[in-house]
């Protein structure tokens, strides 16, 4: 699944959610800390994190994964920003949208709704200044750079983070685990798509309704994560393969199809490492390929169903043969 460029832009726009959707973050005594502000985002982020941590052996470059997902003032539409500030305080720093259960961030007692003010004494860039940037690409670059600041700090070991929670500021120690470059996001968009942009694995809200289970979601997310691990977005850009409809013609289509086959094979290994049921992979793809309304957008650059099935079945057989011949632990 690859995206036309307009979807990449749409991906950055996270609309504000209705007040009722917000999970309580004020921990009463004995009250479990909130792990997410938005349940759907949390599903995506948690699955991508699980794939990234478990799949680490398949990734030439690893990332320090803390188990966090963020939201930024700049993510919100202009008219929603005053409310985002009032509700989440995202004008003060990098807002925490999700904390994956059992992750280093959860062990550090970070909570959804917290705002990261600084890491190892270095303040995060001003969210208001980033949000005021008029160029959308530059705004997204600056937002990603804020998140990068934390990743860079975690590369050197546990980091000291100053966190705003309610009216207080507290200092916590945040550790990480090495994993694949697994950064998941849910984009507010009515279009059906899932895609990899080189940095993030992105699912649209419009597409989410298609998935019957977390297992199905994992198949699509592992495929997109594989694109990022294999650096396909960068490779196709470097070879001048355009986004949009021209991608599906001639040489471009052949290059794209080769990356699709490669991503499918790696996705099988990622799913196996994370303990997902490999027998659930092909039923999902068959169901997706059977959807005529999404054929152009999602499947047109992909191999046909039969080629995909041969490719995936061979990868599953390889994974199972390797598991069968591995010495018992
Ligand atoms: Zn793909």
Describe the 3D structure.
By secondary structure, this protein is of the alpha+beta class. It has two domains: 5-26 and 34-179, Pdz3 Domain (Roll), CATH 2.30.42.10; 212-325, no CATH class. Helix content is 44%, strand content 15%. It contains 13 helices and eleven strands. It has helices at 5-10, 39-54, 81-88, 104-107, 127-132, 136-155, 205-208, 214-229, 232-238, 250-273, 281-289, 295-299, 305-325; strands at residues 63-65, 68-71, 94-99, 115-119, 122-123, 159-165, 168-174, 177-179, 184-187, 194-196, 201-204. Strands 2, 3, 4, 5, 6 and 7 form a six-stranded antiparallel β-sheet that branches. The longest helix is centred in the last third of the chain and has 24 residues, at 250-273. Residues 1-28 have low confidence and may be disordered. Residues 1-2, 223, 227, 260, 263 line the site of zinc ion.
Give the helix/strand layout:
Blueprint: H1 5-10, H2 39-54, E1 63-65, E2 68-71, H3 81-88, E3 94-99, H4 104-107, E4 115-119, E5 122-123, H5 127-132, H6 136-155, E6 159-165, E7 168-174, E8 177-179, E9 184-187, E10 194-196, E11 201-204, H7 205-208, H8 214-229, H9 232-238, H10 250-273, H11 281-289, H12 295-299, H13 305-325
Parallel strand pairs: 9-11
Antiparallel strand pairs: 1-8, 2-3, 3-4, 4-5, 4-6, 6-7, 10-11
Helix pairs in contact: 2-8, 8-10, 10-13, 11-13
This protein binds zinc ion (ZN).
């Amino acid at each position: 699944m690859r995206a036309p460029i307009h979807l990449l832009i749409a991906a950055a726009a996270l609309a504000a959610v209705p007040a009722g959707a917000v999970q309580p973050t004020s921990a009463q005594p004995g009250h479990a800390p909130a792990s997410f502000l938005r349940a759907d985002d949390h599903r995506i982020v948690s699955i991508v994190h699980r794939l990234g941590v478990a799949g680490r052996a398949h990734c030439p470059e690893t990332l320090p994964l803390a188990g966090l997902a963020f939201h930024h003032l700049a993510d919100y539409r202009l008219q929603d920003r005053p409310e985002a500030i009032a509700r989440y305080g995202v004008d003060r720093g990098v807002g925490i949208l999700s904390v994956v259960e059992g992750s280093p961030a959860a062990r550090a007692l970070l909570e959804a709704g917290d705002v990261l003010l600084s890491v190892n004494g270095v303040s995060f860039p001003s969210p208001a200044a980033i949000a005021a940037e008029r160029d959308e690409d530059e705004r997204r670059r600056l937002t990603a750079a804020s998140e990068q600041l934390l990743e860079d700090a975690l590369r050197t070991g546990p980091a000291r983070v100053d966190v705003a929670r309610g009216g207080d500021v507290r200092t916590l120690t945040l550790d990480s685990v090495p994993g694949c470059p697994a950064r998941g996001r849910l984009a507010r968009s009515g279009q059906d798509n899932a895609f990899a942009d080189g940095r993030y694995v992105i699912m649209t809200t419009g597409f989410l309704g298609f998935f019957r289970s977390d297992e199905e979601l994992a198949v699509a997310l592992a495929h997109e994560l594989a694109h990022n691990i294999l650096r396909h977005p960068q490779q196709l850009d470097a070879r001048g393969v355009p986004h949009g409809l021209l991608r599906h013609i001639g040489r471009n289509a052949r290059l794209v199809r080769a990356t699709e086959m490669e991503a499918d094979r790696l996705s099988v290994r990622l799913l196996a490492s994370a303990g997902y049921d490999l027998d659930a992979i092909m039923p999902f793809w068959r169901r997706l390929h059977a959807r005529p309304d999404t054929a152009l957008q999602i499947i047109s650059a992909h191999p046909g169903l039969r080629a995909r099935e041969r490719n995936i079945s061979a990868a599953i057989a390889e994974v199972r043969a390797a598991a069968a011949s591995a010495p018992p632990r």
